[in-house]
Structures are given as C-alpha cells and as structure tokens.
C-alpha cells in the first residue's frame, strides 16, 4: 500500500473497520519522499503527523509542496474522482509517522 521513491523501506499498517480504515505511514528518514495510495473509491481522508516535524504534502512526486504543521488533522473531502489517489509526503525531520483515516 506504500510506494517509495528510493531503495528505502517504509512500513504501513492498515486496520479496516466497516465504516472507515486507519493506516500509518512511517517516514524514518528526513528529506525523503514517501507516498501513500488510497483504495479506489476513497471519498474522504484525514491525515496528521503524530510526531513533531512538519509535513510537506505533494500531489505529484517531486512537485511543489504545501507545508502542514504537526499534530493538526487535515481533511480532504468530497473526492469525486474514481481514479486512484496517491499523496506524497516529505519531512525535514527524521522518524515521522503520518496517520490516515479514510472512507470509501
């Protein structure tokens, strides 16, 4: 469920409940891009950094980014596309953990 743009290993754990799913994306290295792909049909997702580093969110690998503060849950709602949605994250701090909650 995760793709990495380098030879590095990231871990993702997912728990499924009938109404929503929860996933965690570990980002062990600083200044390294990690990605998370949502299942087809995802309509809403929230994410936040459980650790103290800022997150850089990108919709395209290597593209421009938007910086999010740690510990704040951010929401993307009303996704109308049936395409696969992938988001890319990077942090200037090592050892970060992104939490996701999403609905189909």
Can you walk me through this structure?
Helix content is 0%, strand content 46%. It is mostly beta strands. The strands form two sheets. A five-stranded antiparallel β-sheet has the order 1-4-9-6-7, with no helix packed on it. It has a five-stranded antiparallel β-sheet with strand order 2-3-10-5-8, with no helix packed on it. A hairpin with a 7-residue loop joins strand 6 (55-58) and strand 7. The relative contact order is 0.34.
Describe what is shown at a glance.
The protein has strands at 2-4, 12-16, 21-27, 34-37, 44-49, 55-58, 66-68, 74-76, 86-90, 96-103. It is mainly beta and 104 residues long.
Estimate the mean pLDDT confidence: 84
The topology string of helices and strands comes to: EEEEEEEEEE
Total number of beta strands: 10
User: What structural category do the secondary elements indicate?
Assistant: mainly beta
Give the N-terminus to C-terminus distance in angstroms. 16 Å
Tally the helices. Answer: 0
Rounded to an integer in angstroms, the radius of gyration calculated over CA atoms is 13 Å
Which blocks of ≥5 consecutive residues have pLDDT under 50? 1-9
| % residues in beta strands | over 45%
Main β-sheet: number of strands, strand sense, barrel status? 5 strands, antiparallel
Read across the widest sheet, the strand sequence of neighbours is: 1-4-9-6-7
Task: Using the alpha-carbon principal axes, give the shape.
Answer: globular
The helix content is under 10%
